[in-house]
Design brief:
Distance between the termini: 59 Å
Number of helices: 24
Radius of gyration: 22 Å
Order of helices and strands: HHHHHHHHEEHHHHHHHHHHHHHHHH
Oligomer: single chain
Largest sheet: 2 strands, antiparallel
Number of strands: 2
Shape: globular
Strand content: under 5%
Structural class: mainly alpha
Strand order of the largest sheet: 1-2
């Protein structure tokens, strides 16, 4: 078994080299790095920030002007005739956005780039809201009706934008499946880790990872994931409709209580974040580019704007206009990064453990341990600290589990884009469960597979490089839809409006 894990670690290490090249090019070239200011920006950062700026200005700050409208759509009682409602699609996408990255990613970004990385996460999120609007609107424009459901997303709009070439849809579907496979082990690992942490807190003793508890939790996780995800997207949404609001409320309330207990440190927090965004301390690398890159990279890992990975739930919604879901999905980025990631940043920075004499020991801890250590420092110890740690561990487990459900569901949608053959779909389901099991068994066996987490960086940037060109190519359709949306002249959205055949919208029937 150890030989297998060693081999996986070696493969992951090679992939990480490629991932770093994708993220760092051309800042790893001396002539480029020597250019003032510009030399701090890699091609990936320029693409992400540049796309956000471009879409924001072309759509005249849609994320600001339509913010209240998006909230209105979420709070309204819109019923879905086909597919799912805007709110259900929002919760399903939030199930994937609000994942362990909201804790691990933010903690890692601050650990490497300093508190200033949080500022750059805010910047990436603000402009990323416009990117999310574009990809969600595209998903709606080119969605397809299958039975009583809508399907769509990057593989679907990619095929239509590129002249209807079937191989494009297949290639993009395979790309997403590979992306999910790279992320599955970490989410399985995180879910079981949370179970162990909760059990240890409740019993007051450290529970070995190879104990019966872990194996029972493993069996329950695989069984429940299979039952839910094999039931299709509507069955998954029934679970996420319940779990997402619960985990979000628990996490938000817990951290807000911590912040209120430490309210006197709030001005210091904001002062530190803004000052460190441009002048990070030497302990964090002492370079402006370190804070910026970590903020953008972890912001992307958290809110996934521009990756195309949250486009499937956007397409599944039954809306009156494609831009409706664009406004809703932009709010998902706001909730994920501006709200939840900021709360995580509050804990890590205001806990001030990185400023104490045991700084080196703090850097040696795992990312979750760093966050829990900071939360414990803010809570002051005792029963309150234990309660806070318990609630955060519970949220962490729920974050990971809802991500698993989302990945399973959308992997199956992409697999059906390749083939509807039942044997093929069943094989994809089984492989998904096996990959999840690998991550869990890694935890239970106590093996060191830390390089596995680096795969997410590679998966994220690979999706970005494939999705962003499609957004630019399809932006003319988004603009036409946007102009029609803003006109509000009472006419229906049809093929004539967008300038390309969209039979799903031509044949759409309004709910009675």
């Amino acid at each position: 078994m150890q030989a297998l894990f060693d081999a996986v670690n070696a493969i992951c290490g090679k992939i990480q080299i490629v991932s770093d090249l994708f993220w760092e090019f051309p800042t790893n070239l001396d002539w480029y790095a020597s250019i003032p200011i510009l030399g701090n920006f890699s091609l990936a950062i320029l693409l992400l920030l540049g796309s956000g700026l471009f879409f924001t200005f072309r759509l005249r700050f849609v994320q600001v002007r339509q913010f209240r409208y998006g909230l209105k759509l979420l709070s309204g009682k819109n019923r879905a005739c086909t597919g799912i409602s805007s709110l259900t699609a929002f919760l399903l996408s939030t199930a994937m956005r609000v994942g362990p990255g909201n804790i691990l990613g933010v903690t890692g970004a601050i650990s490497i780039g300093g508190p200033g990385a949080l500022f750059w996460m805010w910047i990436s999120a603000f402009f990323g809201m416009a990117v999310a609007f574009v990809e969600a609107t595209l998903s709606q424009i080119f969605k397809e009706k299958k039975g009583d459901e809508y399907v769509g997303g990057m593989p679907y709009y990619g095929r239509r934008i590129l002249k209807g070439m079937a191989w494009v849809g297949v290639a993009l579907s395979v790309l997403y499946i590979v992306y999910a496979f790279l992320c599955f082990p970490a989410q399985g690992f995180n879910t079981i880790s949370a179970v162990g942490a909760i059990a240890s807190l409740v019993t007051g003793r450290e529970i070995p990872t190879n104990s019966a508890l872990y194996w029972i939790a493993f069996a329950a996780l695989i069984l429940f994931t299979a039952v839910v995800s094999f039931g299709g997207i509507k069955k998954v949404t029934k679970v996420t409709d319940l779990m997402v609001p619960v985990m979000a409320v628990i996490y938000v309330v817990t951290v807000i209580v911590l912040v209120l207990v430490n309210i006197t440190n709030l001005p210091w927090f904001f002062g530190t974040v803004f000052s460190q965004a441009f002048r990070p301390e030497a302990v964090f690398g002492g370079a402006f580019g370190v804070a910026l890159v970590q903020g953008i990279k972890r912001g992307l890992m958290s809110n996934e704007a521009g990756q195309g990975t949250i486009t499937m739930p956007a397409a599944a919604a039954d809306t009156k206009h494609p831009c409706d879901q664009g406004c809703v999905q932009a709010l998902g980025v706001f909730l994920d990064t501006i709200v939840i990631c900021t709360l995580t940043g509050f804990v890590v920075v205001m806990g001030q453990r990185w400023m104490t004499g045991d700084t080196e020991a703090w850097f040696a801890l795992g990312k979750l341990d760093k966050f829990l250590t900071s939360a414990g420092a803010m809570a002051g110890g005792g029963f309150f600290a234990n309660a806070v740690t318990l609630l955060i561990s519970l949220c962490f487990g729920l974050f990971a589990f809802t991500c698993l459900l989302g990945f399973m569901s959308f992997t199956e949608i992409c697999a059906k884009r390749i083939s509807d053959n039942r044997v093929f779909i069943s094989c994809i389901r089984v492989v998904c469960l096996l990959v999840i099991s690998f991550g869990v068994i890694t935890n239970i066996s106590g093996m060191d597979l830390s390089a596995l987490w680096n795969l997410s960086d590679f998966a994220n940037i690979l999706m970005v490089y494939c999705n962003l060109p499609l957004l630019y190519l399809g932006f003319r359709y988004v603009l036409r839809a946007w102009k029609h949306f803003e006109a509000k002249d009472g006419t229906r959205f049809t093929s004539e409006v967008v300038g390309i055949d969209v039979p799903t919208w031509d044949n759409r029937i309004e709910c009675e």
